[in-house]
Amino acid sequence: MADNVRFTLNDCPVEIAGVSPMTTLLDWLRDHRGLRGTKEGCAEGDCGACTVVLEREGRRDAVNACIALLGQLDGQSVRTVEGLRGPGGGPHPVQVAMAEADATQCGFCTPGFVMSALAHASNGGTADPDAIHEALAGNLCRCTGYRPIVEAMTRIAGLAVEPPSAPLLSPRTTSAAFDGAFFAPRSLDELLALRAAHPEALLLAGGTDLGLLASRERKPPKAVIHLLYVPELAVISASADQITIGAAATYEAAAPTLIEAFPALRAYLSRLGSRQIRNMGTIGGNIGTASPIGDMPPVLLALEASLTLVSPRGTREIPLDDFFLDYRKTELAPDEIIQSLSMPRLWEGETFHCDKVSKRRDQDISTVAGAYRVRIRNGRIEDARLAFGGMAATSRRARATEAALLKDGFAAAIAAVESDFKPLDDWRGSAAYRRQVAANLLRRLELRLAEPGRALEVEAL
Amino acid sequence: MKFDTPATTNPIDQLKVVGQPVDRIDGRFKTTGTAPYAYERHDAAPDAAYGHVLGAAIAKGRIQSMDLAAAKAAPGVLAIVTAENAGKLGKGEYNTARLLGGPEIQHYHQAIALVVAETFEQARHAAGLIKVEYAPAKGAYDLAASRDKAKPAGTDDEPADSSVGDFDGAFGAAPVKLDATYTTPDQAHAMMEPHASTAAWNGDKLSLWTSNQMIAWSVGDMAKTLGIAKDRIHLMSPYVGGGFGGKLWVRADALLAALGARAARRPVKVALQRPLMFNNTTHRPATIQRLRIGATRDGTITAIGHDSWSGDLPDGKPETAVLQTRLLYAGANRLTRLRLSELDLPEGNSMRAPGEAPGMMALEIAMDEMAEKLGLDPVEFRIRNDTQVDPESPKRKFSQRQLTECLRTGAEKFGWAARRKPMQARDGRWLVGLGMAAAYRGAPVMKSAARVRLDARGIVTVETDMTDIGTGSYTIIAQTAAEMMGLPLQKVVVRLGDSTFPVSAGSGGQFGANSSTAGVYAACVKLREAVVKKLGLNAADAQFVDGEVRSGSRAIALGDAAKGGELVVEDAIEFGDLAKKYQQSTFGAHFVEVGVDAATAEVRLRRMLVVCAAGRILNPKSARSQVIGSMTMGAGAALMEELAIDARHGFFVNHDLAHYEVPVHADIPHQEVIFLDETDPMSSPMKAKGVGELGICGVAAAIANAIHNATGIRVRDYPITLDKLLKDMPLPA
């Protein structure tokens, strides 16, 4: 069975033959398709010069073409800067607004900005400065000083942008295999069979980490299994007791449910990667790659998340506490996949807070991330789960700190941070700095609990 | 045209098109993604193969062996270029280190090989198969540690040392004095478009599409490096995705594309991968700067001294951080000194406002500190020490100098009077501070030529090798030609960045806008003469208006002059000694409001204003963008930008955009620019100067001074990250 990747590009169906499905969308657009409006600035999802939009379900979602693999696009609808037209065939109103506001100088970042702006306007984005900043956090510019771009965005937010057109391609109903190496199963059973048959394959969800293998590390994966079309992995549900998020659900899809249950995540998620990253990246992927500075693991550890792992041998549920073994090593068996993660809702008396400390507010990797679930009854701390990222080879709970907090209160807990973590020194922060930050975040937590509303939150710029 | 007497009234003064905030004429190409950059010339070189650059993995030493066998045998590989097989190569005049290293390695990530293959993936894969054995040598990577070994070093234009009066005596005797040392780190241009080139040989003639600011310099250096005549090279750079000084010269991508294309016998394109750029290309060198200022109690400066230390590779140049101190403030006794250490870090070189950008970062904090010691308002202190003459050479006046006007206007518009003593303003979680600094940047001029063509449709085409690196050159050149020829903008076509066009000033040093438009002015003067002669009109009363030439009672369509064939003329503006007789500079005043989080010491910019006096503003819209863009880069310098050195291995650690942090949207608040009304007849017939670099000069110090006003903490070590504030932060009230 030889399948070809098929997707819609600027309203035209395309079928990819003779090009590896591990090729990035950006390389394919520029080198194979001759569409060079989309630029490569960094090849790792940092700068946004390669931004294109995916049109799906009445929305337009900005994504980084440099870390999206062709195979991931099967069945999707892609629009690039060349696919924009205004009334009468001239430039699109978004392009006109950008040009008239002098929002382009050297022009190299501009197509990416145009596409982020299009997505913002299409999805009902407002002219509120915070909304604009969030929409553009994943796009760097080195010439304009950003203000003309904000001016253009302000005008664009009021535009009536035409909705995305209906998909041209009928969705695939059966699984696909591209080039004998890129597998796109359509059910959990198929996924498990593929996993067993191809233990060397990497599981690909959003690709925001894995895509760097192809774009930056020069080592495109030999084989991947793409999880996007496995319906069992896309489930997002909320019951009276718990929240369940499928391993292949994107941040953007999961955010409303998560924020409803845990309001502190609103500010946190808005600073996780960028809009482009959140449109592709998944929480399951963030756990699976087991990066020591992934933003979600501390949150999920604090929230007592458990993972549903599935293999042909059956299903098991394990606490996330037991999942991370060492640097980039997890409990996942070779034939196993993460199906979903669940976390209990907050009980009465429980509060949840989280902090991301990074050098730059937006579009930056955490130096330290902290998350805390604390149960207080009758003025006494009854239970505490405190977890940190960036403090060890994996995200981890601060067990000694938790114990000290329950026994002797915050001063003891702060003193105990030292015994819990031996962080590393690197460019993001020294070991001493990281320890100090973790301790200070606990001071902030104490203030949040003692005098709600007094502690300063980073939401306000 | 020789420009050696002050400009009088000329057609530019009509300001029908020049001086108007017209939209950038290349804006629609850029917003639609149709502007072709150097790596994208498939129209011209459709069968280009791909080159991938391999950088050295040591900072200093020698390559002992290179095993190319596996790479050569890899699928799709067409050629591999190394120093061993490239033939004899020269070194460009503008390059300090060789663009292709080996066997000697001069810096980390110096290019040592190019692999050419059918596809990008194949080239990249094969480059990873090259096995290199090195014999590393010990290098020097620490500026502070090598400071004692530094030697005096000037440049072609500037002496290492300058001295007036008796600095030591006056400083020693001054009743109020400051002696403080400041440091600025290595910084990266981090322009959005990586260095990229496409090269194609036709016999012994090379066509090179490259992302480049200075066409003629680069033709010369390519010729010198390849050992061929300049006329064998056709270099094209019509669109440049940002340069900031990093693309003033050809880099490894250009040379290796040419060598790769020769070896593979077909066109080759090469883009430097982002993680290679930071160590492979040039950067703004770090400085250590000592400022000594002595004054009387009433705030008159009696002694001003500025020493600057920087490092570079052997035969490199100093960062000229003392330049503004030679000119900005009065003071009878003066001393400035440039010192240079040999370091084995990647090549240091020009980045946006070299000299003044880091120099003002230090000087303008020192001025703030001095004002504080004197109990004077820092605006008033600067005004008190203003000078209308070159303080090192008092017979030489400034052609225009509205520093005081900038300071006063800015103070008024910004609400400077509301500034309080340090640590006294608070807005919720934020400690609020106001800070200011002067802005200063020289306004040099360079010879610049252009060719103009008039066709029978009345369309004027301008051809010059000037580049538009995002600055707006296309637009202001079109405005100049339209004004001169009495045409609407739509009737002017501008073609730039091609070595077959007349040699222009190029883009750099803030000289591009004024010089290149003056060159177009000169060519247009000649075209007007040709038109008048062709139409048999009276030169004395001929007017070029609305697409017509009018003389006496006659009005003839401009295009009629070309009915018998296109009219083509060429001329250059050549500058006489007005720039020597008069010091020509641009001035400004920055005002900044910051908030510093009382608990975390996180700094947020709240408001920024700059008032500029920079001659005639040719296009207020694009000029404003240039200024706020450079303010943003200055904000990065103040708060986050720093290349971190691994002093064991001699390289910049944070060599990608994930780790070299530049400002993002949310970092940059409201920004305002006010241009003072100014025309400078000494500068050129355009009466203009540059603004592209003025905005970065001083802004970082204004931010530092605002942080001091908010927190009472004086940080003299850029960037001002919160770890440098935390230990001294005032206890939360």
Automatic annotation (TrEMBL), chain A:
Question: Is 4Fe-4S included in the keywords of this UniProt record?
Answer: no
Keyword terms? FAD, Flavoprotein, Iron, Metal-binding, Oxidoreductase
The terms under GO molecular function for this entry are:
xanthine dehydrogenase activity
- Give residue ranges for domain 2Fe-2S ferredoxin-type: 3-84
What EC number(s) does the entry state?
A: 1.17.1.4
Span of the signal peptide = none
What Pfam families does its record include? Answer: CO_deh_flav_C, FAD_binding_5, Fer2, Fer2_2
Residue stretches making up the FAD-binding PCMH-type domain? 175-348
The UniProt entry, under NCBIfam families, shows: xanthine_xdhA (TIGR02963)
Which PANTHER family does this one have? XANTHINE DEHYDROGENASE (PTHR45444)
Put simply, this protein is called Xanthine dehydrogenase small subunit
Annotated organism of origin: Reyranella aquatilis
Q: What's the source species' lineage?
A: Bacteria, Pseudomonadati, Pseudomonadota, Alphaproteobacteria, Hyphomicrobiales
From TrEMBL, chain B:
Output the Gene3D superfamilies linked to this UniProt entry: Aldehyde oxidase/xanthine dehydrogenase, a/b hammerhead, Aldehyde oxidase/xanthine dehydrogenase, molybdopterin binding domain
Q: Which residue ranges does the record assign to the Aldehyde oxidase/xanthine dehydrogenase a/b hammerhead domain?
A: 32-138
Family annotation (InterPro entries): Ald_Oxase/Xan_DH_a/b, Ald_Oxase/Xan_DH_a/b_sf, Ald_Oxase/xanthine_DH-like, AldOxase/xan_DH_MoCoBD1, AldOxase/xan_DH_MoCoBD2, AldOxase/xan_DH_Mopterin-bd_sf, PaoC-like
Entries under Pfam families matching the protein: Ald_Xan_dh_C, MoCoBD_1, MoCoBD_2
Q: Which SMART domains match?
A: Ald_Xan_dh_C
Its protein name is: Xanthine dehydrogenase family protein molybdopterin-binding subunit
What species is this protein from? Reyranella aquatilis
